[in-house]
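Input sequence (192 aa), recorded before submission:
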Amino acid sequence: MYGRIATHWVTNHDLFSNVNKNIVLDGEQWASALVKIIWDLVREIWQHRNDYVHQQANKSSEYRAELQEEVQRLFQLENQTDPTDRQAFATPQERVMRYTNAGMDAWITRITPRINQAIRRAHSRTKNTTKSISTYFKAKEITRVDLPTVSQPAQSNEQNSNQRERAKKSGENRKTIADYFVRKKKNDDKPP
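Predicted structure, token format:
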């Protein structure tokens, strides 16, 4: 509507006001009042649209604080993403924090799915490429240690001393369990 109404509406209003004496406005006055009402209504609708699109209704400091917390949370997830996916963080956090509310909201909406996908990809890649710790160790043959059993009597002191003598002759400086007990007994015999 261009701010004009058809001229025959004005004529029809004049005819109606001649019949109905309670109508105070003539056709021209009525037409200008009608155009003003329509313009006010269109302006209200336009303002509502702008508030919605540009987030003017959410300029409160609480809303801005929520947006900034979400931006900080997303930037903290950077270390969980693969280095190849970190281009999502190309814009520095300080710069994003200076965006308008609408700009921050748009950045969050655009980046959140991208970061979530990057984290899933990093976890999947880590799971598929990380070897189990057991693969780094070669399987060693476990040898049986000869321990005295019920069917095999323990060596006597004489056999232990023979082993020590052979070790001394061969130059080995190995101690047997019996050496610890013998030495302990010698120390126990000394008066304090």
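Checked by second reader. Residues 183-187 have pLDDT under 50 and may be disordered.
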